[in-house]
Design brief:
about 325 residues; mainly alpha; hpI Integrase, Chain A; 3 domains; three-stranded antiparallel β-sheet; 14 helices; 6 strands; about 45% helix; elongated
Length: about 325
């Protein structure tokens, strides 16, 4: 027996994962559950006989998720949010054992979620999250099996229409807003910022007609210049702390929906960012400059706005072609 009680002082794991001739592993734990988890992990990962088929991983999906969170997820900006979604996913899948997770079983999960009314994009994000769990654990040496979702294709999504506000709609919107809502909307339209980036903007991040957005979606900082007039408006008399303490997201969203009722689904307040990018290109802006302003990690993300350029049908420069073909930022 590889787990032995220690007369009220915990439990001792005593195991040779590589048979009698292999290395002996002994470790003490306070609880039997911890000892059992360690024993399963040792047996599943420490058998280095590459010519012998390793035992199938008997750990439950929730156990792998907690291991991922302990070693990696807790260090992510949205780690708590992600691990919560992974736990919900595991429950929906019936908390299978690691060996039971296959392309076929995840395909069944997709069918279930589609039947529940979930969008294909949401399910694709689920696949990314679960796939990342296995990728990280394999990289860190905590999972020895094959990646179960490797090379599994995601659900193909239709190309989403990119909505934007016309000049008349922009003027109508700004006339409807006031106070912090008006200032924030102007800043989004002038810099292509996400509403969340503007929401947390602080006075000390607006210096010398330059706005610096910190800790953005891709964890990178970016700076965008604005006019002297707009800089004075948004700073006003605020000396430090948050610039916009009285934002009303729902009110701004409802105003946009009333002014532009035919916008694609999910592009209400975010349409301010699309509007900046669209008008930037329509006015002859450079696609590479737009990439830097928006903070896209790849030029391919920014190319969705390329058709707004007056010279869109002309052959793009060799630099742009090279970057697209090589997927460079």
């Amino acid at each position: 027996m590889s787990i032995k009680p220690l007369n009220g002082e915990g439990y001792m794991v005593d195991v040779r994962p590589q048979s009698r001739q292999g290395r002996r592993v002994r470790k003490k734990f306070k609880t039997k559950v911890e000892a059992q988890q360690f024993e399963r992990w040792i047996i599943a990962t420490q058998n280095n006989k590459d010519w012998v088929e390793k035992p199938a991983d008997q750990r439950a999906l929730t156990e792998l998720i907690e291991l991922w969170f302990q070693h990696h997820g807790q260090n992510l900006k949205d780690g708590l949010k992600t691990v919560h979604k992974l736990r919900v996913m595991a429950a929906k899948m019936g908390n299978p054992k690691a060996r039971q997770i296959t392309k076929a079983s995840f395909s069944d999960y997709r069918v279930l979620r589609l039947a529940e009314g979930k969008k294909a994009k949401t399910i694709n994000l689920d696949q990314e999250k679960l796939g990342a769990v296995f990728s990280v654990l394999i990289e860190l040496g905590h999972y020895h099996g094959e990646h179960p979702l490797k090379e599994m294709k995601k659900i193909k999504l239709p190309v989403q229409e990119m909505g934007f506000l016309t000049r008349e709609e922009i003027n109508t919107l700004l006339a409807r807003l006031e106070g912090d809502n008006l200032k924030a909307a102007k800043l989004c339209l002038a810099t292509g910022a996400r509403w969340g980036e503007v929401f947390k903007l602080r006075r000390e991040e607006v210096i010398g007609n330059k706005v610096t957005y910190l800790n953005t979606k891709n964890n990178k900082n970016r700076a965008v210049f604005i006019s002297t007039e707009l800089c004075a408006q948004i700073r006003d008399s605020i000396q430090n702390g948050r610039l916009f303490a009285n934002l009303n997201y729902r009110y701004v969203r409802d105003c946009i929906k009333e002014i532009a009722p035919n916008l694609p689904a999910g592009q209400a307040v975010h349409v301010l960012r699309h509007t900046f990018a669209s008008h930037f290109m329509m006015n002859g802006g450079n696609i590479l400059a737009l990439q830097r302003i928006l903070g896209h990690s790849s030029i391919l993300q920014t190319m969705v706005y390329a058709h707004f350029a007056p010279d869109y049908l002309e052959v793009p420069s060799d630099l742009i072609l090279w970057r697209i073909n090589n997927n460079q930022s």
